[in-house]
Structures are given as C-alpha cells and as structure tokens.
Amino acid sequence: MTDIRIPPDLWEDDREGVIVSWLYLDGAIVEAGKVVVELAVEKAQMELVAPTSGRLVILAAADAIVTRGQVIGRIE
Amino acid sequence: MAAPPNASSAGQSDRILTMARAGREAVISEMRKDSKVFVIGEDVGKLGGIFGTAVGVQEEFGFWRAIDTPISETGFIGIACGAAMAGMRPLVELAYVDFFGVCFNQIYNFAAKTHYMSGGQYKMPMTMMIGVGGGYNNAAQHSQTVYGTFAHMPGIRIVVPSNAYDAKGLMHSCIQDDNLTLWMVHKATCGLGWLGAPLKTAMAAVPETDYLIPFGEARVWREGTDVTLVGLGLTVHHCLQAADLLAASGISAEVVDLRSLVPLDRETIFRSVSKTGRLVVVDEDYLSFGVTGEIIASISERDPRVWKAPPRRVAYPDVPVPFSRPLEDFCMPDAQKVVAAVKSIMVSQ
What we know:
The complex is a heterodimer of chains A (about 80) and B (about 350).
Chain A: E1 2-5, E2 17-22, E3 29-30, E4 35-41, E5 44-49, E6 54-58, E7 65-66, E8 71-75
Antiparallel strand pairs in A: 1-8, 2-4, 2-7, 3-6, 4-5, 6-8
Chain B: E1 16-17, H1 19-33, E2 37-41, H2 57-61, E3 66-68, H3 73-85, E4 89-96, H4 100-111, H5 114-117, E5 127-132, H6 147-151, E6 157-159, H7 164-176, E7 181-186, H8 187-190, E8 204-205, E9 219-222, E10 227-231, H9 234-248, E11 253-257, E12 260-262, H10 266-276, E13 279-286, H11 291-302, E14 312-316, H12 325-331, H13 335-347
Helix pairs in contact in B: 1-7, 3-4, 9-13, 10-11
C-alpha cells in the first residue's frame, strides 16, 4: 500500500490547493507513472502520477481543498 | 459507434479525462504520426495553450512545432493558411473566439474559400482550436460563442464537442481532414482548474487509442417521447439536467447533442421531432439569426405537420454579455429556462 501524497514542495507557500479531477474512478487499476490526479493552486495546474501500480483509493475527492504534504489517496 | 460518454463503474482501467486533456491527447498523437502537424498561436509553447490543449507539446516536439506568436491573429493565422497551402497541417490556437474580429478576413475570405477558388488546386488542412462561452464574469469581449457567425460561412467544418470522449475523436477528425475545421470548446466544459471544478458530465472515459468521430453525426444522449431538447457544447448539459427535472414532473424529454454544427445532422433532429412533436433548441449564441432559428426552419421546411406545439428557443438575448454576475446569470441559458420553455409548450396542448 502506497500513499499518494502531495509533495511538500509542490508549491511554494502555505496557500491552499484544490483537487481539480481524478483521472480514474475510485477502485480503478492504475499503472505506475501514469497521471492520476490534477490539482490547482490559484491559476496554476499541477498533476501527480501513480507512485506504483495497483488499485486506486481516492481519499480527497474532486473539489476538496488540500494542503502541501497531504495524503489524498493511496494505491493498494 | 461511440462508447457511453460516462463510465459508471470502477474496476476497469478506464481513464476519466477532462476535455482539455482528451483534446491534447489527440493533438499529441497526430503530431507523433505526422511531422507536418504543428501548433501555432499565442501561448501555445511554454504555457501549452490558454485552455490547455497544447500542454507538453513544445517539450516533446520542440520550438518549431509549437510556435509562440506575438499578439497578431491576422499574422499567425495568415502564416498557418500559407503553411496549409504548402502541404503542412497547422493547428491554430485562436484562444477566445471573440478574437475572430481581428482576423476574420484570413479565416473566411482566405482559409474557407481557397480550396474552392483555386479550383481544388490548394487544400486547406488547417484546424483552429477555439474556446467559447461565458458564465464566469469575463464580460462582453471574452464570453461569446458566435457559433452562428462561423456556421453561416460556407467552407468551414465546425465541431462543438460536449464531453471528453467526443473532444478527442472530433479532434482526430479535424486534424486528419483536408479542410478548414473549427474545434470549438465551451470553457465551462473543458475542465481547467482556473475555470472551476470540471463539469462531471463533460468528463468521460477516453480510450488511449486513436479513434475518429465522423462530422455530421449527432448523438442522442437520452431517449424520450414528449419533447426533443437540442443542445451543443455546454447547453447539452443544461438539456440533460432539464430532462431529469422534467422526468420528475412526468415529462419525457429526448436529448440530442449536435456534436457537429457544420455539417449539421438534420436527419437525427427531424427523426426525433417526428416522434415527440415538440422541440426546444438550447444555444448560448445570440437568439436572432442563429443556430436555433436554423434548426427550427429545417424541420418546418421538411414537414410542418410534425409540430404538436410551437417550437421554442432558449438562447442568449440579443445584448452584449454583461460583466455583472446577476445580469450574466439572467442572460445565460440554464436548465431552469429549458424546463420553463418545455412547460410553456406542454401547457398549450
């Protein structure tokens, strides 16, 4: 089981971000290295890849407010 | 035919993409297959396009295939026209459709007519990527759709995808076509973070492989028997929402998504209205002289006996798009306005 964590240095200050969308449904099988989620901080858009292959568990749904370092999902 | 637009169950490796991402996937795939395809326009290189359709393109293909231009629409659309005549396949980013005013001569006198006027000697395999529509307080010069303005001009193929699956398939069709094509996407559907959370019904399961969606094929999203709701782009989502609300009042609405404006699938619309006898056309372009009137006229011309009630139009009032949020909300088509229009013709029975 591996966490999908927003890297603590993904953006520079303590602003809040938002989950724009997950590219897979909760429970989908995803491949390591594929983009799984898009985030936005103000107008900047960012993406995170699956850290490993497996079944995606979404912990912070689209529209959720998030902060740096937060665990937003995991791969089982 | 097309896969269902929305994936409903997990467990598959189906990716649920935003429209911006789906369109971009088609762009990148076509660029890998054909070195004649390139992107040109304002902010397409470093930024990847204001609406995200060219993100990563310059990184992968280099400066000369993702060309950032000065703010001169006439200049870079002229460059693209010349390149297309010389055998290249340019993808031009117009960004906001409202900017067409600067460069309309290049578009409709030159790009749209050169194939015809050269007796077929010059093809114009050029695609324009265009963001349209309002609803986010960007005022009168950044909020229009002007579908009718372009659809009125012979020589241009126009697609208006409403969801990610169609966005990708139609982008492939546009790039592979030898004519001037317009890929017009409503900003509220494209799924960019800075425009708010993506519209759920605009996101869709999108295969990683290439696929084409033919021009001129509307999609019936939902079957119904009492009234036909016709929409394009964002208004398809208003229609779907309205159909849910109407179902709760016992009214069965059929929802038709045009997908292509030119060529227009008059056959599918006629077949639907022949069944329901009632029609509400929902369009974010201005009410007068536009898409809504064209669709209604084409039904009446073919067979006026299909009407059980007068057709209705839910469109943008003939005024510049207001900046003020309450005023803009008042003007924008939405599901409630569609429901009211339907109820007005159900009552008349």
